[in-house]
Amino acid sequence: MATLTIRDLDDEVKRRLRVRAAEKGVSMEAEARSILTDAVQDQLEEEPGAWYRRMRERLAATGAYWDDDVIALLPDRKTKWAVSPEEVERDRAARERQSGSDAGSGPPS
């Protein structure tokens, strides 16, 4: 498990967190952990490649040209890569598996 230190937390926020924790009968740490977990829960439950697919769909909706090999190399200002090459490969493999399972699900001939 990781440890997180939060500096410069407003006194009023800390007070409200303390009250909220007391109302639930838990520690401030447990309440903060619960709040943070709830805030990112949707992202934790996302399937691999979901972000990549959403971004591809958003770009396609704008009419932008999409190239899997190029988008994987676009730098992001906050992270080293906007999409890691591993994520591109996982998504590509998932699409191939999906198209393979779709092939047998058509109408009988």
Explain the overall architecture.
- The chain is built from five helices and no strands.
- It is mostly helical and 109 residues long.
- It folds into two domains: 11-45; 50-103, no CATH class.
- The longest helix is centred in the last third of the chain and has 19 residues, at 85-103.
- The chain is elongated.
Query: Which percent range describes the beta-strand content?
Result: under 5%
What's the overall geometry? elongated
- The parts where pLDDT drops under 50 for at least 5 residues are 75-81
Domain module tally = 2
Distance between the termini: 54 Å
Average pLDDT works out at 75
Rg of Cα set: 21 Å
Specify the number of helices: 5
Helix content: 55-70%
Q: How many E-type strands?
A: 0
- SSE ordering: HHHHH
- Major sheet: none
Sheet/helix structural class: mainly alpha
Summarize the structure.
With 109 residues, this protein is mainly alpha-helical. It contains five helices and no strands.
Entry keywords:
109 residues, mainly alpha, 2 domains
Topology overview:
Layout: H1 11-24, H2 28-45, H3 50-62, H4 68-71, H5 85-103
